[in-house]
Specification:
Chain A is α+β, with helices and mostly antiparallel strands and 166 residues long. Chain A has 5 helices and 9 strands; from the N terminus they run βαααβββαβαββββ. Chain A has helices at residues 12-22, 29-37, 42-46, 92-106, 121-129; strands spanning 3-6, 52-56, 59-68, 75-83, 111-116, 133-134, 139-141, 144-146, 158-163. The model of chain A has no long low-confidence stretch (mean pLDDT 94).
């Protein structure tokens, strides 16, 4: 069974490679490149203590990049999660979310937050299954509450939150 | 004289517009779009307390997005700075950097860090003028120490640091 460990800044190059490989099938090269722009080194450089790596021997098979809000004492934010497609359906993402939330709760955080694209049905189903609620947006798409241009023009998002108090 | 204030999550949409406008002349639309990907809402949502806005009446004329490392007690990081081209050459960026560094030092941070592209001669000259040193990279380009693929494949960076202890 793959082992969970804290992330390190030296993981960054490998994680970017993982993103390119793991999403390579389902996205255009341009989309994969945009995805990797969501993962600048700074997240590993300054927030590795709250980020997790799942390793099988020396191979990274999944990761979770997360941090705690500096503006308040309550929120823990899951920024980016990746799972090797070969390991999908084995509860790996659930394991990462659970470990992150457990640690965050132990540090006094009371709410986990995450966002995704309204097109990402898999991510939406996953967050619902994990007990996340959807934050009300400014419009409804087929019953899905969406925040229009949340991350910039055309960058619509669905916003999740969940109480994680111990 | 424009007034400095703390950033707020509600500034995000305007800041993204500013980036598109202010860099619109010198970059392709694709490059401007990539720039705005460096500014997801999360920085305003979770790190507004360390980010600064320079406002002239109700118009944002400049901003600095920065935060303190969670992994250590020493580093303060300047992630993204923008100045309205109409106000360039007036010491606005210097004012933002000085205010950020002063606040960071008051909070016990002892080192400011920032990065830029090796192509960005203006930014490199600015950081040198502000007293930043260049962190040694893995290669030299015309006397400039560069970190190859620092932020992913082809994303070379120059890395700056400066002591900011009071």
């Amino acid at each position: 069974m793959p082992a969970l460990r804290q992330a390190n800044v030296s993981d960054h190059g490998t994680l970017v490679e993982c993103v390119h490989q793991w999403w390579g099938d389902s996205r255009t090269p341009e989309q994969a490149r945009e995805l990797s722009l969501l993962l600048p080194r700074l997240f590993l450089q300054f927030f590795s203590g709250t980020s997790l790596i799942l390793e099988d021997g020396t191979d990274i098979r999944a990761f979770l990049i997360g941090f705690y809000a500096a503006d308040n004492d309550t929120e823990a934010y899951i920024h980016f999660v990746g799972v090797d497609p070969k390991l999908r359906g084995q509860g790996i993402a659930r394991r990462l979310y659970t470990a992150f939330s457990q640690r965050a709760a132990e540090e006094g955080r009371t709410e986990a937050r995450a966002i995704t694209s309204p097109m990402n049905a898999g991510s939406i189903a996953f967050h619902r299954a994990m007990g996340f609620s959807l934050e009300k947006g400014d419009r409804e798409d087929d019953g899905l509450s969406v925040h229009t241009s949340y991350d910039g023009p055309g960058q619509d998002r669905v916003c999740f939150y969940k109480k994680i108090a111990l």
